[in-house]
Amino acid sequence: MSSQPFSALPFLPISTGLIENLWMEDAGYGDLTTRSLGIQDHPAHITFTARDDQIASGVEEAAALLKQLGASIDYAIPSGSRALSGTLLLEAKASAGQLHLGWKSAQSLMEWSAGIATMTHKMVTLAKKISPMAVVGCTRKAPPLTRPLAVKAVLAGGGVMHRINLSETLLVFAEHLTFMNFDIGKAIGRLKQTAPERKITVEVETIEQALTVAQFSPDILQLEKFTPQQLHHLHERLKFFDHIPSLAAAGGINPENIADYIEAGADIIVTSAPYYAKPCDVQVKLEAA
């Protein structure tokens, strides 16, 4: 790993409300220890350094948090950068009181975000070794109220978002079809008419369901909890169809088994695994300036 950006991230605006909520949660009533010691006005300097190899993420948000508390930022590595152990991630100056208010929130933000980005990067690397066109998409099942940071971390790791929210994609579940007498042909026909610019994905749970749905030419079949063997069998049978949908494998896919699914014929991996990654370790030094 080097400190060069792994991938160019799109511009993602930082919500000042989100940043304020982050530091308010930890320091909304001030820092009793720093205030009681009478050191809050001392000039101070802080650095955040990667303790283990990681894909940096959340750095801009951590910097914004410190700036909102009055710090000046001397250096910030771009999110999406590969950071070896010992790489400087963020450096700032302010009073001891200002930095003590924000350093733990900033550290936790970068550690959690880098954990997601680093696991995403690992899964993308494993998938593309087998199929360069493979896509690793993360679900919207990030911990509640963390989605803006989680989305950025996924992108920093080279992944894509399977769905950011319900408003942007067409994904048909059995829970939708129950209101249409499970008429999949009618459902797909209606979607092609009412949202012609969108791809249509249909979730299926068995090979038989997948073959039935495939007759109506959806764009993507989302295979819920298929084994690699089941996926491979479906992949082979679909070769005889005039229209072959892309296959998205979903359910329980992680770094240990992702290669099996790509080898079996999956075009897309749908996973929540990065959200449960161990945070990456970030070392902090807060000293007198």
UniProtKB/TrEMBL annotation:
It comes from the Bacteria. SUPFAM superfamilies: Nicotinate/Quinolinate PRTase C-terminal domain-like, Nicotinate/Quinolinate PRTase N-terminal domain-like. One of its GO terms (biological process) is NAD+ biosynthetic process. CDD domains: modD_like (cd01573). One of its GO terms (cellular component) is cytoplasm. InterPro entries: Aldolase_TIM, ModD, NadC/ModD, Nicotinate_pribotase-like_C, Quinolinate_PRibosylTase_N_sf, Quinolinate_PRibosylTrfase_C, Quinolinate_PRibosylTrfase_N. Pfam families: QRPTase_C (PF01729), QRPTase_N (PF02749). Belongs to the NadC/ModD family. This is Putative pyrophosphorylase ModD. It comes from Zymomonas mobilis subsp. mobilis (strain ATCC 10988 / DSM 424 / LMG 404 / NCIMB 8938 / NRRL B-806 / ZM1).
